[in-house]
Amino acid sequence: LPMAFRDVNARRHIGLQQLSSLASTGRTFLGPVKSHKFIVDESTNQSTLICSAVRLLESLDLSSAAGQLLNETIQAQNKEFKTGMSTLLFLVGAWSNAVVECLQQNVPVSAIVSVMSEGLNSCCEKVQCLQISIHDVKKELCSSRVRPSTFECKACQVGCDSLLNPQDLLYFQKHVSAPEVIPTSSCSHQGDDCHFNKGLVSPLVDLGSAASLVKPGSDRSSSVIPGSGVIVSSHIKQKLTHSRHFSTLGKSRFPSQQGNFQGYLLRPSADPCECCDLGHLAMALSHGNQTGMKLLQSIVAYQQERADCRGSSQLNITEIVTCPLLGLPESYSCVCRGFVTLVPPEQATVIKQFKDKPLRILLVDGDLTEQYRHLGFNRPQNVRTILEHPNLEGGRAGGTWLNRMLDILVGFEVNLVLVKGSVCKNLLDRCTASRILVIGPVPRDVLCAFMEVTGAQPVTYLSQLNPSCVGNGAQAGLWEASDGRAMDLGELVPVQISVRGLHLLTAVLTTAVASRLQLLEDQFWTSVYRLHHALKDGKVFRGGGAVELLCLSHIQVLTEEPVRPAKSGKEFPGPWLAAAVAEYKPLVLQALASGWKRYLSVVMCNMAKAPTELEACALVDHHLRKAADCGSPSAYILELFRRGDVLGGGSGPFDEHGEGLKVYDNVAAKTEAWRRALDLVLLVLQTDAEIITGPRRNELLNSPLSSEFMFL
Question: What is the pTM of this model?
Answer without folding.
Answer: 0.77
